[in-house]
Amino acid sequence: MFSLALQKVQNRFLLVNLLTKRIRQLKDGAKPLIEGGNRLPVEEIALQEIIEGKITPLDLSSR
Question: How far apart are CA 58 and CA 36, in angstroms?
Fold first, then answer.
């Protein structure tokens, strides 16, 4: 999954930063942006959101 997400972001350091921020948001109670997300670990949710284009670096830069 990481390699698929890396194709979307194209910078592994930016991807890790993006994942860290989104995982923290999910752990703090943010709702998943993907269907069935409530049944997955937060790490998989964040990766899948990036793969599906629902989260981009610009989305989290202002949060």
Answer: 24
d(CA 19, CA 47): 7
- What domains does the chain contain, in order, with CATH numbers? 2-61 (3.90.940.10)
pTM of the model: 0.86
Write down the mean pLDDT value for the chain. 91
Task: Return the structure tokens found at 2.
Answer: 């990481």
CB–CB of 1/44 below 8 Å? yes
Q: How many CB atoms lie within 10 A of CB 1?
A: 12
